[in-house]
C-alpha cells in the first residue's frame, strides 16, 4: 500500500488531497498547526488518516514527523509539501517579523521537512511543492508571499536533477484562485470578500474559481506520473494568459 505525507493537510487543498489519495488506497499522514482545523480533521477524516500537529518552522517537529512516518509506514511514496501562509499587504507595511514568519513557514519549513523525510522516500517516489500562480504571474500586495513561493519553485529543477539517480521525481503544482477557507481568513467584511471574489473571477477565462478537489486531482497525477520531473503544472482556469 503506497504512503503519502501531506503538510498543511488539515484544511483546504491539503485536506482535499488527503481524502482523494486515501480513496485511492494510500496510507496518509497529514500535518497542521491550527488547533481548530486539527480537531476538525481528527473528527471528520477517515480514522486511519493520521493527523499530526507540527509547526513548519520547527526542526524538532520535522524530526518528530519523520519518526512518526518511519514508525507507522516505514517508507513514503509521495510527499506533498503544501503547508504555507499568506500575508497580503503592500511592501511599505512589511516588518521584519512578518517577513521572517513567511520565509520560516513557506521555505524553511518545507525544505527541512523534506530533508528529514527524504531518507524514508522510496526510490521512484514523488515530491510535489505547492507554489501557486503568483510566483510566475504576480500577485498585488503579495511581494513577500510570492518571493517565498518563488524560492520553492527555484528548488524544483535542481532537486529533480539531484534526486534523479534515485528516480525520485520533483515537481510543483501552481493553483490559481481556489474557493477554500483561505478567503475567510482575510478578516474582511462579507461584502468586501464578495466583491474581491467577483473581481477575481472576472479575470479567469473559465469564469469561476477552482476547487480543492481539482487541485488534488493534479497532485494525484504528479504522484504517479513516472516520466514527469522538474515541472510546474498550473491549475488555474487560464488565469493570467490574457494580454
From TrEMBL:
Oxidoreductase as UniProt keyword: yes
Record key words, sorted: Oxidoreductase
Coiled-coil blocks: none
GO MF annotations, alphabetized: oxidoreductase activity
Family, similarity comment: Belongs to the short-chain dehydrogenases/reductases (SDR) family.
Protein name: SDR family oxidoreductase
Lineage per the UniProt record: Bacteria, Bacillati, Actinomycetota, Actinomycetes, Streptosporangiales
